[in-house]
Design goal:
The complex is a heterodimer of chains A (224) and B (295).
Chain A lengths: L1 E9 L5 E10 L4 E5 L6 H9 L6 E6 L2 E2 L5 H9 L1 E4 L11 H7 L8 H14 L15 H14 L4 E5 L7 H13 L6 E6 L12 E6 L2 E6 L4
Parallel strand pairs in A: 3-8, 3-9, 6-7, 7-8
Antiparallel strand pairs in A: 1-2, 1-4, 4-5, 9-10
Chain B lengths: L1 H5 L1 H14 L1 H37 L2 E6 L5 H12 L4 E7 L1 H12 L17 E6 L4 H10 L3 E6 L1 H43 L1 H9 L4 H39 L10 H33 L1
Antiparallel strand pairs in B: 1-3, 1-4, 2-3
Classes of the chains: A alpha/beta (224), B alpha+beta (295).
The complex binds adenosine-5'-diphosphate (ADP) and magnesium ion.
Chain lengths: 224, 295
């Protein structure tokens, strides 16, 4: 589902964010990408989403060759991803429900299902009582959960969560990770980046990728 | 297309949210666009009226033929009959002294009292010749050949003058359409650029979620259209009122001015204005979106 071979990313200012990394992620995996702040986790997520292009090496995501993929291909790829961004990227002034529905409006999901799916997803992240609150009135943890609900409703092949525990206390962080861990199924792979390694449920994951300074240091092998 | 229809409500909501973010400046823009369209509509209206006047005058091209004083009444009829035979002449009619006086009295209305100062009827008889304008040149030459004819007066000169006026109107009108059009395009594209800038976070999020560019752009296109078509509609209503006023005033002093039917004039002007506003709205929005992308 994702293959990286000798993948490099050098930013225009010369920063070498990723220095020849190799890994493979298969259908239905739950993968944690760990590493200290500034190690290159977000850069990797950006590459997977097509927000940055590899400087060299190969990256294939859901069949898209990312180095040469055009805008239309990238758009298609993004439509099969459920992203939970580090900055969440909710629309201010819109309710939780509207934010979740926005993720479905241009996908192949019938209009009649938008509202029910969004409400169900918000229930699933235990925000059923806040569906009509506007984004800026929610706590960070609640906003995190709205972002997750938005990702779920898209029925993605890949859920990407970048630092979902940032800004959260331990209880909320574990909560969020439990929800994310539970999203993994045969059709959906879940990839989570975090520098809070102590919160990872080792029994649930299939792979652990530890990055430091743009290099992969440990790649914990597959166990079911 | 399916996506657009399914999201109509969303797009309309987005459009009005964008319009509301810069309320005062958008309102002022709307007012200036409306005024530009109103002025444009007035220019177009007078233009249409002039064309109509020419059209009517060309259809009614008329030549008046005057006799030497020695020509008696039977001879007048005979001259009129021979004029009828000239190719291009539609009809002839002898207007005698009494009828000429009566016509002038009608035109003068209350002022007709001045005619009482004349001991005798000062008007002379003439033949009213209706002609096909395309052949008027040849007809005039033929009339000059007739021995009993003293002088000829045709409306060729008047027509030429009106034609000159329309040419100026056409030039000014075109200039005005270009000026108002450019101003509208600039204003709309500026509004769109502002909207895009204000919503840049949201646009970025939509792109990351894989939204098609058309989905992202449509609310902005609608912003442009609401401004121009709204302005165009308002301007059309104002023009309708202005035309109404104009017609009421005109029918008094210049009753014989061949104005086009009022309804038709309004309909034509409205059509042109709405079409222009549609084009300018789309054009301005596209310009705004295009120039936003480059930055
Ligand atoms: N847009 C950018 N331009 C230049 N350097 C960047 C950019 N984004 C990130 N970096 C740098 O790349 C390195 C990796 O950053 P990032 O991928 O954000 O790390 P992490 O998410 O693990 O904290 C850091 O040194 C960071 O400063
Ligand atoms: Mg990061």
């Amino acid at each position: 589902m994702i293959t990286a071979k000798n993948l490099n990313l050098i930013y225009p200012d010369g920063t070498e964010a990723l220095k020849g990394i190799n890994f493979q992620i298969n259908k239905g995996e739950l993968v944690y990408i760990t590493g200290p702040s500034g190690s290159g986790k977000t850069s990797l997520i950006k590459l997977i989403m097509g927000a940055e292009k590899p400087t060299s090496g190969q990256l294939i995501v859901l069949g898209h060759l990312m180095k040469t993929e055009n805008q239309k291909g990238i758009r298609g790829l993004r439509q099969s991803i459920g992203p939970v961004f580090q900055e969440l990227k909710l629309i201010n002034g819109r309710t939780a429900l509207e934010n979740v529905m926005l993720g479905m409006r241009f996908l192949n999901i019938p209009r009649s299902q938008w509202k029910t799916k969004a409400t169900e997803a918000l229930d699933r992240v235990r925000l059923g009582h806040k569906i009509l609150s506007v984004a800026e009135n929610l706590s960070w943890g609640e906003r995190q959960r709205v972002a997750i609900a938005r990702a779920i409703t898209r029925k993605p092949s890949l859920i990407l969560a970048d630092e979902p525990t940032g800004n959260l206390d331990v209880e909320n962080a574990e909560n969020i990770l439990n929800i994310l861990n539970s999203l993994r199924d045969e059709e959906t792979a879940v990839i989570i980046t975090t520098h809070a390694t102590h919160l990872i449920d080792e029994t649930a994951i299939t792979q652990l990728i530890h990055i430091e300074n743009g290099l992969i240091h440990i790649n914990g092998g597959l166990h079911s | 297309m399916k996506i657009i229809i399914a999201n109509l409500g969303y797009f309309i909501k987005e459009t009005f949210t964008t319009l509301k973010t810069n309320r005062l400046s958008n309102l002022l823009s709307f007012v200036s666009i409306t005024l530009a369209f109103f002025l444009l509509a007035l220019v177009i209206t007078t233009w249409i009226v002039s064309l109509q006047v020419i059209d009517v005058m060309e259809q009614e091209a008329e030549i008046n033929v005057f006799f030497y004083e020695t020509v008696d009444e039977p001879s007048r009829d005979w001259v009129a009959a021979s004029i009828s035979d000239i190719t291009g002449v539609v009809s002839t009619r002898v207007v005698n002294e009494a009828e000429a006086l009566q016509r002038m009295e009608e035109i003068l209305g209350e002022e007709a009292q001045v005619l009482a100062y004349f001991d005798e009827n000062p008007f002379e008889a003439f033949i009213e010749v209706k002609v096909d304008l395309n052949q008027s040149q040849a007809i005039v030459s033929a009339l000059q050949e007739i021995p009993d004819v003293r002088s000829i007066r045709d409306n060729q000169q008047v027509l030429d003058q009106i034609r000159n006026i329309t040419r100026i109107q056409q030039f000014l009108g075109t200039l005005f359409i270009v000026a108002a059009g450019t101003a509208t395009l600039v204003v709309i594209s500026h509004i769109i650029r502002q909207g895009v800038y204000h919503n840049r976070e949201q646009i970025n999020t939509l792109r990351l979620l894989g939204a098609p560019e058309s989905f992202i752009a449509l609310p902005f296109l609608l912003v442009g259209l609401v401004m121009t078509v709204g302005g165009g509609l308002l301007a059309s209503v104002m023009t309708g009122a202005a035309i109404n006023m104009g017609y009421t005033q005109m029918s008094g002093p210049i009753p014989y001015l061949p104005l086009p039917p009022q309804g038709l004039l309004m309909w034509n002007t409205t059509l042109v204005i709405l079409l222009l506003s549609l084009l300018l709205g789309i054009g301005g929005s596209v310009m705004g979106l295009k120039t936003s992308k480059e930055t």
